[in-house]
Amino acid sequence: MPEILKLGIIQRALFASLLVGLILPLSGSFAVVRKSAFLGAGVAHIAFSGVAFGLMISSPPILWAFIFSVLASVLIWHGGKSKRMDYDLSIGILFSLAMALGILFLGISKKYGSEALGYLFGNILTTTKGDIYTLAVLLLLLLIFYLAFYKELFFMSFNEELAEASGINVSVFSLLLLLSMTLSVVASLKAVGALLVFGLLVMPAAAAYQLTYDFKKMITLSLLFGLISSIGGIAISIFIDVPSGATIVLLAFAIFLLSFLFSRKKGG
Fold first, then answer.
1. Which of 205, 149, 145 is CA-nearest to residue 22?
2. What is the pLDDT confidence band of residue 227, given thresholds at 50, 70 and 90?
3. Which of 61, 128, 146, 250 is most buried, taking the most CB atoms under 10 A from its CB?
4. Which tens digits make up the pLDDT trace of 56-66?
5. Rounded to the nearest 10 degrees, what angle do helices 170-192 and 129-148 cross at?
């Protein structure tokens, strides 16, 4: 074990898993209480279509993942704000479109190699120092945002109408929350993968939701479960030589299942 931990690739993987294990559950806590968790799955697949486009034109994939995801998030937000289309319908349409575009871009580029598969299924062992710095900066920005506007975000997460009546600009904060989740998902793609990032976004927060009615305690438990899932998952994947993204999400599911079985909440 000590010898393995001395390897730079393992150290970077552990740092990345720690950061992802905090970033995704932090954003996911608000998504769970706002009942907009499915949005994370949509954003992840939209981001992958951006990755495929970047590979097709030989441009940085993560840049295009960010561009595609932000544009889609703004469209989803605008559709909900204008009341012309609700979130679920917007996400479903963009989800399907993104998958079709991703397949089309990969088909045109003929690039089905390890890089594309890494973004789809995740490969935390390919994490670079630049990726870790990006994740660390994002975590800091998220913490500043959530702490600075906690009262507004808490209020609107549980009662948008009352929050708006009290003077909170619900529309703007909804967009900011949506963008914060989008950034969290895109930054975590390389570590967890587009197909599995949704699990780590939702399951630690869902597990915490089963155990407490206090939102601050829920966030704390969500972060704890996220850390256990990510660090434990990467450790398991290294020692039994299986994909890291899968072990991280399976461990997150095990924690959720235990929380659900021991929950005393009525109706779950």
1. 205
2. very high
3. 61
4. 888 888 899 99
5. 160
Q: Which residues of 38-59 are buried (b: 16+ CB within 10 A; e: fewer)?
A: bbbbbbbbbbbbbbbbbbbeee
Question: What separation in angstroms does the CA of 33 have from each of 28, 128, 158, 208?
Answer: 9, 33, 7, 11
Q: Among 4-8, 107-111, 239-243, name the most confident range.
A: 239-243
CATH of range 2-262; options 1.10.3470.10, 3.40.630.10, 3.40.50.2300, 3.60.150.10: 1.10.3470.10
Which of 191, 180, 247, 228 lies closest to 36 in space, CA to CA? Answer: 180
Q: Answer yes or no: is pLDDT of 267 > 60.
A: no
* DSSP code at position 125: G
Confidence check: pLDDT of 171 > 90:
no
User: How large is the average pLDDT for residues 9-36?
Assistant: 88
Which pair of structure tokens corresponds to residue 143?
């913490």
Residue 65, H or E segment:
helix 61-81
The residue extents of the domains of the chain are 2-262
CB distance 203 to 195 below 8 Å: no
Question: Residue 154 carries which DSSP code?
Answer: H
Instruction: Report the distance separating Cα 72 and Cα 98, nearest Å.
Output: 10
Query: Helix, strand, coil % (nearest 5) of the chain?
Result: 85, 0, 15
